[in-house]
Design a protein that fits this description.
Elements lengths: L3 E2 L1 E2 L8 E2 L9 H4 L21 E2 L4 E4 L14 H10 L2 E5 L10 H7 L2 E3 L1 H5 L3 E4 L4 H6 L4 E2 L15 H20 L7 E3 L2 E3 L3 E5 L3 H12 L3 E5 L3 H9 L3 E3 L19 H15 L4 E4 L14 H5 L6 E4 L16 E4 L2 E4 L9 H19 L5 E2 L12 H8 E4 L2 E2 L20 H10 L3 H25 L3 H22 L6 H11 L3 H8 L9 H30 L14 H16 L5 H18 L6 H23 L3 H24 L5 H27 L9 H30 L12 H14 L1 H6 L3 H24 L6 H23 L2 H25 L3 H5 L25 H10 L2 E6 L1 H6 L2 H13 L3 E6 L9 H8 L7 E3 H4 L8 E5 L8 H4 L19 E5 L19 E5 L2 H18 L1
Parallel strand pairs: 2-8, 5-6, 5-8, 6-7, 12-13, 12-15, 13-14, 15-16, 16-18, 22-23, 22-25, 23-24, 25-26, 26-27
Antiparallel strand pairs: 1-3, 4-19, 9-20, 10-11, 17-18, 20-21
Helix pairs in contact: 2-3, 2-11, 6-7, 6-11, 15-29, 16-18, 16-29, 17-18, 17-21, 17-23, 18-21, 18-22, 18-23, 19-21, 20-21, 20-29, 23-24, 23-27, 23-28, 24-27, 24-28, 25-27, 28-29, 31-37, 33-37
């Protein structure tokens, strides 16, 4: 059996392989036949019998092209390097790459030998594009045709038609702009206004979309027409205006082409084109019908109606043309309209065309033979759609000299489900689901009615005026907190959570209020109180120091100097003035609480932007210090008790400062979770201590029942916060498995715990005995702690940002409970602020994942948009690049976006990336970062990490700010991110992340994904972007890879 392998390529060279025992081509003149028309896409691959021919015994020959106007070459130096790495020997004819700007030296450096024509055609592998079917049949060869590569997902990397069409679309716009007498973009100058050019693109295939993107980037008004709805959506995504006719008819066809439309539809579209011809300046047509003449879409009369100076580019000219007046292969003018009918547009960009075609052919050669040692093609007559067997068999036009064209149809071809006729019941259900204006207004009115009725009920149930006052304070503080937190910039969400952690340490006020004895506590209640004050002080000192450290990282070298020590002046006046008033006999504690509460509001409001962020932290400190001072002033403790209070807070504060100084920014989520647990524990201790202290007065106090209820609720919320935060800490620290713990019947278990907690209130409220009360409080503490564990353990590591924000909210409501319990306005105000902050951040996180809060907290699966069908099967081959190739891409790109994920945090790769960005910015490149709201393990963590490394905050943008910029981006570097850039969220309605907002990195011109492996992210969903033709994988450790990139880029800049 002959083992001949020959490639006849797309207007470029093909490849011929021959083993040692195989006959070689003798007729070199036949090989040099030039009777082919442009872009004939054939590839002939001959093989020996199984088990194949060792790669090292095969030689690839690349001769010079001689077809008129053909400037491309089949294999680029990069392709040579790939083949040599695979094991092939490569010979290149001297000067073969010169028309494509590939000198012989580049081929030599890539591992090829430079020889004359005779040596090349004596090779085992020859790359050329002549008609050799007869000769190959005589040699019992196996022939593959590049234009028959099936257009399926797995074959995207081998699709030479798409590669060349992409170039043709771009070149069409360049040629049109060269022939057009005006700017593409509009301008307003002192000499007058220049309107933008109007461009109509017919056909939304690869060439049409490439043309749309190019014309749009040049500033033109672009309109796109296609019979397929998906193509119109792609036009829209590129900023073009999609044009449609009134007739509803789908144009989806087979093999990436549109189908032939009905007579009525064609008449409608011709009317549309006639109208557009009178308005637009440039028309680019790309419509083709496989195996037939291209349809006439622009008639002679339409061309005559166009304005003088207009330009038409007919990319279908080789197939007869879409424009009636086109002269194929020539540049002509008819009635003042320039016609560009060239049929060799890819050859007019020979370097780019050769590079892409070389990639197509080398990827196919490496993919069709899975054996790593021997070259062998397995041709099957029975195969499934979208598999590698489909690609091989679809491409084979001859096997061992036998003509096999066309290929048999594959099995399991996906068929679009026909539109389902809706039943009467379904139509009635849809009608019922539509909300009428009356019903919508009625629902809103009902909500307000319920709120007002609740307030009236609270007023009727109020035991005294103090309760009504504190409810008023709570309501107003909640509204203020709601509007304040929404104003915080997403980049400062981490400092926001840190500062709320600090001011939540005002649970110390509850502990101080219940402390007693002398230098030490004298009873259980006083012991619990001193513990609450101690652990709250840890939060206060540690929280404010961590916040200050984070905010200092956002400072830029160009920022003006700051004199924040001057804020000691208002702090001194606030505390010193209160001390003086106290000595004079004034009781102004409530005004102090109001002032402290307003300072805490200012702490959150200050984080609305970078300029006032450090002022916000200072105001938070003033508020906490003022609140503690007012509490001590109201208590008027003895010197011994004051010493006990001071010691507890001093030791706790010292511990907090020590922890904050040692903490690394990458461990910030763990620290926040740990601090949340302290708030929860302090709330539990304070509530139990308050019950112990107030119990003797319950018989005579009219507000006793209120006190008992609030103590019970505060204990319950604090218990969940305490244990849930510890589990979150364990998962984030790696002490516990980050995977969700799916206990059997966990929902029933949680429901039982909730029922037991609620049921415990019955004996607690009915039985006035001290023992029953403490037993119930102890029981609810244990039950809530267990519930906190079961709830949090069932949540995976990917959802930790939501867990942290929910726990942050819980800590606020626990603080509110203390405020109600102690009738303290300060605790109520601060608790409402923190509760609102955590709730809003939780909402933002859930929206960013397209999930409900209940879905996350209960360990749910999928998003609110996830369908019920089978998820999309992702097939294909990925493209790997090394550091040198990535550096070349970086050097060639002008507009670069970096999208980091948690992998960057884990690898601590922010420092080399920051240095790389600095070098690229100094080199004149536009470099920015795109941050997803749930990237990292807490809101805003990546912003803080980048700030720590010295990245200016004004180039770090949120997802909503940067998503629309990806189509115009030359290169996107994805570093350690997966789920947040997963296109399945938009492409697969059955994916568990369906509908989740993601960074649309795949719309960039080139994407490099830096990961350890091709593995899934936390959501356990395969990522289709890994297999897209514009994506390359740079696999390895993020830190080492980023260090290598930084070093290579620096070397390149030094050499320049």
């Amino acid at each position: 059996m002959a083992s001949l392998l020959r490639v006849v390529a797309v207007g470029c060279s093909g490849t011929l392989f021959s083993g040692a025992a195989c006959a070689k081509l003798q007729s070199n003149r036949a090989v040099r036949s030039s009777g082919l028309r442009f872009f004939r896409t054939h590839q002939a691959l001959g093989r020996c019998a199984s088990p194949g021919v060792p790669y090292k015994q095969l030689t690839v020959g690349v001769p010079k092209e001689i077809l008129q106007n053909e400037r491309r070459v089949a294999i680029s130096p990069a392709g040579v390097q790939a083949l040599v790495k695979q094991g092939f020997n490569v010979i290149v004819e001297s000067g073969a790459g010169e028309p494509s700007k590939f000198p012989d030296e580049h081929y030599s450096q890539a591992g090829a030998a430079i020889r004359d024509m005779k040596d090349v055609f004596g090779s085992d592998v020859v790359v050329k594009n002549p008609e050799l079917m007869d000769m190959l049949s005589q040699k019992k060869a196996t022939v593959l045709a590049m234009d028959q590569v099936p257009r399926v997902t797995i074959a995207q990397g081998y699709d030479a038609l798409s590669s060349m069409a992409n170039i043709a679309g771009y070149k069409a716009v360049v040629l049109a702009a060269n022939s057009f007498g005006r700017f593409f973009t509009g301008q307003i100058t002192a000499a007058g206004k220049v309107p933008p050019a109007k461009v109509l693109i017919i056909g939304g295939g690869v060439a049409g979309l490439a043309a749309a993107g190019s014309a749009r980037s040049m500033g033109a008004i672009v309109r796109g027409f296609d019979t397929r709805a998906a193509a119109l959506e792609q036009f829209k995504s590129l900023g073009a205006e999609p044009l449609e006719v009134d007739i509803r008819e789908s144009g989806e066809g087979q093999g990436g082409y549109a189908k032939v439309m009905s007579k009525e539809f064609i008449e409608a579209e011709m009317k549309l084109f006639a109208k557009q011809c009178q308005d637009v300046d440039i028309i680019i047509s790309t419509a083709l019908i496989p195996g037939k003449r291209a349809p006439i879409l622009i008639t002679k009369q339409m061309v005559e109606s166009m304005k003088d100076g207009s330009v038409v580019v007919d990319l279908a000219a080789e197939a007869g043309g879409n424009i009636e007046t086109t002269v194929p292969g020539e540049l002509s003018v008819y009635q003042g309209v320039t016609h560009i009918g060239y049929t060799d547009l890819p050859s007019r960009l020979p370097t780019q065309s050769s590079t892409l075609y070389s990639n197509n052919i080398t990827k196919l050669m490496r993919a069709i033979s899975p054996d790593k040692e021997n070259f062998f093609i397995d041709v099957k007559d029975v195969f499934d759609y979208g598999t590698m067997d489909h690609v091989v068999r679809g491409s084979v036009v001859m096997h061992n000299g036998k003509n096999l064209f066309p290929a048999p149809p594959p099995n399991n071809v996906p068929v679009a489900a026909p539109p389902k006729t809706k039943s009467v019941q379904e139509l009635e259900k849809e009608k019922a689901a539509q909300v009428s204006p009356f019903r919508a207004t009625f629902t809103t009115a009902g909500a307000y009615t319920g709120g007002i009725a609740t307030l009236l009920g609270l007023g009727l149930a109020a035991p005294n005026a103090a309760f009504t006052q504190i409810v008023t304070t709570f309501g107003l503080a909640g509204i203020v907190g709601y509007h304040t937190v929404w104003g915080v910039t997403p980049a400062l969400h981490s400092p926001l959570m840190s500062v709320t952690n600090a001011i939540s340490g005002l649970t110390a006020v509850g502990g101080l209020s219940l402390m007693g004895g002398g230098y030490s506590p004298t009873c259980t209640a006083e012991t619990l109180a001193v513990l609450a004050a101690f652990i709250s002080s840890v939060n206060i000192a540690g929280g404010f120091l961590v916040t200050q450290k984070m905010l200092d990282m956002f400072k830029r070298p160009t920022d003006p100097p700051e004199y924040n020590y001057l804020y000691l002046l208002p702090a001194g006046v606030f505390v010193g003035g209160y001390g003086a008033a106290l000595q004079a006999g004034y009781n102004i504690e409530q005004m102090m609480y109001l002032g402290s509460g307003l300072c805490c509001v200012g702490a959150l409001a200050g984080l609305s932007n970078q300029k006032t962020a450090r002022l916000g932290n200072a105001l938070g400190m003033i508020g906490v210090v003022g609140g503690v001072a007012a509490t001590l002033g109201a208590l008027k403790p003895s010197p011994e008790l004051l010493a006990q209070m001071s010691a507890a807070m001093a030791v706790g504060g010292t511990a907090g400062l020590t922890i904050a100084k040692r903490i690394q920014i990458t461990d910030l989520p763990q620290l926040v979770a740990a601090f949340h647990s302290l708030v929860g524990l302090a709330a539990v201790l304070t509530c139990v201590a308050e019950y112990m202290v107030e119990y003797p007065h319950f018989a005579t106090d009219p507000a006793a029942n209120l006190t008992k209820i609030v103590a019970y609720l505060g204990t319950y919320i604090g218990g969940i916060t305490f244990s849930g935060s510890l589990v979150a800490y364990g998962k984030l620290q790696g002490m516990l498995n980050s995977a969700p713990l799916m206990l059997p019947a966990r929902h029933a278990l949680n429901a039982s715990l909730m029922a037991a907690s609620v049921g415990g209130m019955i004996p607690y409220m009915l039985d006035p005995s001290y023992t029953t009360g403490l037993t119930c409080l102890g029981s609810v503490s244990a039950l809530s702690a267990v519930m906190g564990v079961t709830l949090t353990a069932a949540i995976g590591g990917a959802d930790m940002p939501v867990v942290i924000t929910v726990l942050n909210s819980y800590s606020g409501w626990a603080l509110c409970a203390e405020g109600f319990l102690l009738n303290n306005n300060l605790l109520t105000i601060v608790g409402a602020l923190i509760g609102s902050s955590g709730a809003i951040l939780s909402y933002i996180m859930c929206v960013a994942m397209n999930r409900s809060l209940a879905n996350v907290i209960l360990g749910g699966y999928g998003t609110s948009s996830t369908g019920t069908g089978k998820p999309m099967e992702i097939t294909g081959t990925h493209t790997e690049v090394n550091v040198d190739q990535t550096v070349d891409m970086i050097k060639e790109a002008q507009n670069i976006i970096i999208t980091p994920g948690y992998g960057l945090c884990a690898a601590k790769a922010q420092y080399p990336i920051a240095e790389l960005v600095k070098m690229l910015t100094e080199a004149g490149k536009d470099v920015r970062f795109g941050i997803h709201p749930v990237a990292g393990r807490m809101p805003g963590q990546l912003n803080v990490l980048l700030a720590e490394a010295g990245v200016p905050y004004d180039i770090v943008l949120e997802m909503e700010e940067i998503n629309e910029d990806f189509p115009e981006t030359d290169l996107t570097l994805v570093i350690g991110a997966n789920d947040t850039v997963n296109s399945a969220a938009q492409e697969d309605p059955n994916s568990i992340i369906a509908g989740m907002p993601v960074l649309e990195v795949w719309k960039s011109k080139q994407v490099v994904v830096m990961k350890r492996s091709l593995g899934v992210g936390y959501a356990a969903v395969d990522n289709p972007i890994f297999y897209k033709p514009n994506t390359a994988m740079l696999l390895g450790d993020a830190k080492k890879t980023c260090d290598a990139l930084q070093a290579r880029v620096r070397e390149g800049l030094v050499q320049q």
